[in-house]
Amino acid sequence: MLLKARSKLMMISEHGDERGYLTVIEGNKTIPFEIKRVFYIYGTKEGIRRGFHAHYKTKQALIALSGSCTIHLDNLERKDEIKLDCPTKILILEPNDWHEMYDFSVDCVLLVLASHLYDAEDYIRDYELFKSLHT
Amino acid sequence: MLLKARSKLMMISEHGDERGYLTVIEGNKTIPFEIKRVFYIYGTKEGIRRGFHAHYKTKQALIALSGSCTIHLDNLERKDEIKLDCPTKILILEPNDWHEMYDFSVDCVLLVLASHLYDAEDYIRDYELFKSLHT
């Protein structure tokens, strides 16, 4: 059985002045891993739910830079629904959390910072396999 | 005199399907440096121009994830105006380019990936000093 770390929400400060806003995230400092990969999800169609996987090793930080969306988390001991709706709210997503994303607003830009380069072998896309690994 | 590398625009592919869009940037792969720091600029007020600096060592990748803005570049040999207006257009900004950002649309979210953690000593904020270093 794999160890279960808890995903968690954190708020970071933004630098606001008469020009507008700027928010900074530093690898291994603001968030607990180096940033190897960045991806962003946008133009998501209405009613779409995506994700449906967990990881063996990849940690991620999720931030709604524009608009909002909801993240469903499931580590088999606990299920959570987390709304991301501002650029200073970061969800640190542990590998052992099965996650799904939904309720994307039309203007949602979801930024994801990941601890590893893409590796198809690191995705657990079968919920039954996920359950067998974690129970 | 410092060596002058040229900043350059690159287009990357997006993964589009019936769900919407997802675009990936990997450190030292899609872009020519490791991603140590990420910041994003948003809620920029009308008429604002920001930046006004160059770096000694920090390389950056700039992407307008939402809306648009214009980047003014100046390496003393050449000035450029580059419009960033889509999530697949990346400006690889060399340290030796004095840069200013302006014409932010109300909905602009400008994502910046940087090769170094924040270091106040790495900013050249005086244009005369910048000129003396590069001529």
UniProtKB/TrEMBL annotation, chains A, B:
Could you tell me which Pfam families the record lists for this protein?
FdtA (PF05523)
- What highest taxon heads this organism's lineage? Bacteria
- Which InterPro entries does this UniProt record tie to the protein? QdtA_cupin_dom, RmlC-like_jellyroll, RmlC_Cupin_sf
What residue stretches are annotated with the Sugar 3,4-ketoisomerase QdtA cupin domain?
7-133
Q: Which Gene3D superfamilies match?
A: Jelly Rolls
Q: Which SUPFAM superfamilies match?
A: RmlC-like cupins
Q: What is this protein called?
A: WxcM-like protein
